[in-house]
TrEMBL record:
<keyword id="KW-0378">Hydrolase</keyword>
<dbReference type="InterPro" id="IPR001360">
    <property type="entry name" value="Glyco_hydro_1"/>
</dbReference>
<dbReference type="GO" id="GO:0008422">
    <property type="term" value="F:beta-glucosidase activity"/>
</dbReference>
<keyword id="KW-0624">Polysaccharide degradation</keyword>
<keyword id="KW-0326">Glycosidase</keyword>
<comment type="similarity">
    <text>Belongs to the glycosyl hydrolase 1 family.</text>
</comment>
<dbReference type="InterPro" id="IPR017736">
    <property type="entry name" value="Glyco_hydro_1_beta-glucosidase"/>
</dbReference>
<dbReference type="Pfam" id="PF00232">
    <property type="entry name" value="Glyco_hydro_1"/>
</dbReference>
<dbReference type="InterPro" id="IPR017853">
    <property type="entry name" value="GH"/>
</dbReference>
<protein>
    <recommendedName>
        <fullName>Beta-glucosidase</fullName>
        <ecNumber>3.2.1.21</ecNumber>
    </recommendedName>
</protein>
<dbReference type="InterPro" id="IPR033132">
    <property type="entry name" value="GH_1_N_CS"/>
</dbReference>
<keyword id="KW-0119">Carbohydrate metabolism</keyword>
<keyword id="KW-0136">Cellulose degradation</keyword>
Amino acid sequence: MATTKPVPRFPDGFLWGVSTSAHQIEGAVDEREPSVWDEFSAEPGRVRDGSTAAVACDHVHRHGEDVALLAGLGVDAYRFSVSWPRVRAKGGLDFYDRLVDDLCAAGVRPVPTLFHWDLPAGLDWLERSTAERFAQYVSEVADRLGDRVARWITLNEPAEHTLLGHALGVHAPGRKLLLDALPVAHHQLLAHGLAVRALRAAGAGDIGIANSHGPVWPAGPDPADVAAADFYDMLLNRLFADPVLLGRYPDGLGELMPGDVEADLGVIGEPVDWYGVNYYAPTRVGAPQGTGTEFGGVRMPAELPFSVREIEGYPVTDFGWPVVPGALTELLTAFRARYGDRLPPVLITENGCSYEGVDDQARIVYLDGHVRALHRAVEAGVDVRGYFVWSLLDNFEWAEGYTRRFGLVHVDFETLERTPKASYGWFREMLREQRR
């Protein structure tokens, strides 16, 4: 096996889990209403391999098998997402009733995410009413599942849904609004705040959000590079953390948002019980270069006030993302320094990597390094309460289709056979050691 040195012991009660999302694994497209991702995937050229998530892992029909994999893995919790389009269909919550019952029977805590990018077709985050409709949907889900679900996540990665889906057009719904996509960020954050209120009204007492974050490194010491990196850090990190944790936007952004921003910030800043961080890699950013640059397979327009540069000197995943475990420690200690006592306990709600093969020794090295980096953050005084691997299963990886594999479990997308990878065994044994 790729690593043999024991992982340091985490505090008692530390939560270990794995994550998935509805659109990426559920399939059963004819048993729900369409989403913006169904529409996007149907357009030629949008998804790398021309695939769709119509079947995906067929989790809706095979969830019993997947719950058995979770139980065999030995995780404390399973973070999944509830499909808003499925809930809108007749009997749509019945599936989640069964899933939650099965998880509880297996001794695995259900941790639902209420929005993971699969917006119902016909709704639009440019419209304020979508946030209000979201709160109504959240109330419906909480009323049905709240007797068995103790921990809730409102939104997953509003930054990516804004930037990739609405600013750059490489994710659904495929808009290229650049900075005119800022209202999408605001309405998602407003939806988060309204969802917190709806969950509190339903009796929920353990609520967070899953925001994506990573350190932003200037390409060099030149003031133009430093300024460009600071702007990118504002877009990726502070734009989505400051309103939730501080109740305000970074300087200069509030006036660009629609509606009564001050009143909305009072909703967005509703206290959360913990703060979720999805971490994958740092980003190196410099001044604009006059031509578009490519980052993670995404072409960045030349008119942006920054350019994303390659990070050299580190191994990369099959996705081309640099593997920098120490940047996770850097990120968490910087967040503690920035937000102080306004930062609640932290959960790592996603961390993982794309590698091919069942004997995935590179994934073991990746996870081992990041778990150790997380422990260093705990030792440095950051109040981290849990860690979720992305992902349980190989799945539909958005615009990459089935060309990227993040799972601890290999899925044959022809037969749908599940095969635990070497990393599944490593994670299982690591959890056993944590509990000795």
